[in-house]
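Technical note accompanying the year-one report. For the benefit of new consortium partners, we illustrate the data format agreed upon in the data management plan: each record pairs a sequence with a structure-token string. No post-processing was applied to the example shown here.
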Amino acid sequence: MATQEVLYDQLYRLDGQGYGAYKSLKGKYDFEDFTLHIDHVQGDPFAAPSRVRVVVPQAVAGFSQSLWEGPCRAIALADFLTREFYRAAQGNQRTSGSGKSGLIGIVRPSQAVLNRSAARVTAEAVELRFTVGLPAFGRRIAGRQAAAVLCGSIPALVAKTLLYKALDVASLEHHINTVEDAEALRSQLPAHNLVAFIADGAILPRRSGIDERPLQDQAVPFTSPDSLRVTLTCPHAGTVTGMGVPQGITLVVGGGYHGKSTLLRAIEAGVYNHVPGDGRHQVVTDPAAVKVRSEDGRSIAGVDISPFIGSLPQGKSTQKFSTPNASGSTSQAANIVEAIEAGATALLVDEDTSATNFMIRDRRMQALIAKDREPITPFIDKVQQLYTDCGLSTVLVMGGSGDYFDVANTVIAMDEFVPQDVTERAKAIAAEFKTERDREGGQSFGSLTPRIIQPDSIDPSQGRHGVKLRTRDVDQLQIGAEAIDLSAVEQLVESGQVRAIAAAIVYAQRYRMTATTPLAEAIAAVMADVAQYGLDCLTEWPVGDLVCFRDLELAAAINRLRTLRTI
């Protein structure tokens, strides 16, 4: 193995040569406290930066087993180190030439604590993956500047962020303990028959639509109504009280701007753990809860939406429904059925993003348009069957239709961001003011047939260039020549999740999809491989920009591929 001194001398010799000569750096180098791996060298100073890794032996890093023992603590520790490196690198950013010269970058963490390929902590070592823009002037190597980055800046960052003795130990332990407490809270939901738990004192509002940090001014700390307050136990924080959202059908009602959607968004985010100080670090949700909405224009491939939508005009069947341009109602029906297929156990629905004709058909409309002329069975007539037949709870923000009082198990009213349990009052109103609408949902939800995907309908190649994957933030990815719109898949929080999903689709198509394998089984196999082998199993070489995702979002991305076909 070459040494730091050899790398330093080599960079000086490369000074002034054509940029392609940087390719000779690929390999690994022994530094005093760590090993530097240069895995991929960029083609020019304006291309994606070079990929590098540092591996610090535990004898040097000094993290005791108690800090990383168990998957939860290991992920939390790796998350903390990633954030430390990110902050230190951001504070040390300065270009030293053309393009991305001299820039050191790592995946940008969100408020969520996630399993990322950027960092890994084991009994043997701490490994961190990041990128470096190799310096150049024009397209000539800036060897002296490269030596300053690779042999100066990187060792300084390692010493500052990856060694236990250099860190704020109290902050480190608090970070890990906060994440472990959240896992403990979430693990107690089934025993209490809860979909979600929101701790007293939680801060739910965010600073803005593009800033997920907690609102600092005028935020009202969350306070549970007494009738819904439950007490859970954490290994570090001890006893925690808060509002339990029961399994079944829960309505969230209230006036505009009083916090209904804010509460729902916090519940959506509760499928992930959050950093200390986020305000939602003790807000936890069933890990298989999924937000569903209408999605005009999306593609649907072979989905049985017949529980919600019967035969269409001209006798078109909806038992294997396909369209390149779904309406609001057909898209929301498909989103729910696909969520069931992917293993969802709770639906999160907001009337603001739902199709009105899918959610409700009142008595007057029933009188005007006979049932035999209306193929849509509204959600109000299926929501109870979803729970009794499929075990699928629903949390529904509904400020515009009291008809849902008839089917709700729990009704929570938000009044100036303070929740109130108004279930008894809502039931009394429902008894006093009967809707007299006809139930249209039949006796059961209906049966669903597992879908099998045609593997060759997923083509990640683009001409002679082989596999082509591109992503844009959290709302779009491209597989080969096909773009997938993920803007309605609202529980993705980091772009690295989208990159990992893109790689997982290719992996599934190559290794887990067959002409006899149902989609749900193929996705389960992919998730099992990731759980066993890590995110590295999805790529040909180690990369540091992948972030773990749920099976629900992987299924959602596959289902939105416009070339998708079923058998």
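Partners are asked to follow this layout when depositing records. Residues 406 and 430 are 6 Å apart (CA to CA).
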